[in-house]
Specification:
Strand order of the largest sheet: 1-2
Distance between the termini: 103 Å
Helix content: 10-25%
Order of helices and strands: HEE
Number of strands: 2
Largest sheet: 2 strands, antiparallel
């Protein structure tokens, strides 16, 4: 492309761009003997869907205290009383 041809080509490109806007087309291509011009307009992107944070898990139920036993293990006949755990 020479400088003397640059201005008419720029004018043609502007006219093609205006034609895109007026007609709602997304691209136009024109080809002449030694010139090929393609003008394309990017499609308007749809907004990305909003992603919400996952719901927080439900809080765990508080651990209940062990039920009081009716049997007293210290008075059980098989209980071994030792000064240290694991020794007899």
């Amino acid at each position: 492309m020479t400088d003397e041809n640059a201005e008419p080509e720029q004018k043609l490109i502007r006219e093609l761009a205006n034609l895109l806007s007026e007609t709602g087309l997304t691209e136009i291509e024109i080809e002449r003997a030694d010139l090929r011009i393609r003008v394309a307009r990017g499609a308007v992107a749809a907004p990305a869907p909003a992603v919400s944070a996952p719901a927080a898990p439900a809080p765990a139920a508080p651990a209940s205290a062990p039920a009081p036993s009716d049997n007293d293990l210290a008075s059980h006949p098989g209980t071994v009383i030792s000064p240290m755990v694991g020794t007899a």
